[in-house]
Amino acid sequence: MSGRSVNYLAHLYLANNNSGLLIGSILGDFVKGSISTLYTPEIRAGIDLHRKVDSYTDSHQVVHASKRIVAPSRRRFAGIMVDLFYDHFLAKNWHHYSTVSLYDFSHHVYTVLAEHQAILPDALKQILPHMIEQNWLMSYREINHVNRALNGISRRFKRQNNLFNSAEELEWNYASFEQDFQLFFPDLIHFVEHYKRSLILA
Q1: Are 75 and 167 in contact (CB under 8 A)?
Q2: Full-model pTM
Q3: For residue 1, is it within any domain?
Q4: What is the mean pLDDT of the chain?
Q5: Which of 26, 112, 143, 146 is 20 to 30 A from 153, comparing alpha carbons?
Q6: Do the beta carbons of residue 5 and residue 96 sit within 8 Å?
């Protein structure tokens, strides 16, 4: 993933309800460079986890296979698209991965972020009200909301792109993307569990 990743739901799920890790897992999209003195150990660990998840995802052969499904004309932005497609499958199949409902989890995330607004980067502060009002985390269950998210990203890009209405790629190859997600996500969970066992939070 080059630039800012967009799979918020997966990153937040992998934080596993630890508030510090949860905040860090979304800050990873907004904080670049050194984090040694900016935040608490838990938040720093969450940012580090976010970066490791991105690196692991980028190197996984199943994710590479998903990117190859995307039409060649759009493949330059396949990483962004696959991120959101996988969040769609996580939201759709949430009950397979969590005993907490997606509704309750989403509102817990919004509450934690709202309670820590003072330490959030300005860019995150700006989108947080929209995230809450439009309930982004739950909305990923619907393909039309995935498409809306991709259209928003398309408009924000300074360079020319063809992300607009690119959720049609998901519709055209739905079963293949879903199969890839089902193969990949257990591997990612295992990777994150191993990482968490190595954490020593001072």
Answers
A1: no
A2: 0.93
A3: no
A4: 91
A5: 112
A6: no
pLDDT of 197 higher than 50: yes
Distance CA 65, CA 131 (A): 30
Expressed as residue numbers, the domain containing 127 is: 8-197
| pLDDT tens readout for residues 99-155 | 999 999 999 999 999 999 999 999 999 999 999 999 999 999 999 999 999 999 999
Which one-letter DSSP state was computed for residue 1? -
CA–CA dist 56, 41 (Å, integer): 22
What's the average model confidence in pLDDT over 38-54? 91
Contacts of 138 (CB under 8 A, 6+ apart): 91, 102, 103, 106
Buried b (16+ CB within 10 A) or exposed e, 156-167: eeeeebebeebb
How many residues comprise the chain?
202
Q: What is the pLDDT of residues 84-103, one digit of tens each?
A: 999 999 999 999 999 999 99
Q: At residue 1, does pLDDT exceed 50?
A: no
3 inside domain: no
Residues with Cβ within 8 Å of residue 1, at least 6 apart in sequence? 54, 57, 58, 79, 80, 83
| Structural domains in the chain (count) | 1
Contact 91, 138 (CB under 8 A): yes
CA distances from 54 to 47, 143, 177 (A): 11, 23, 18
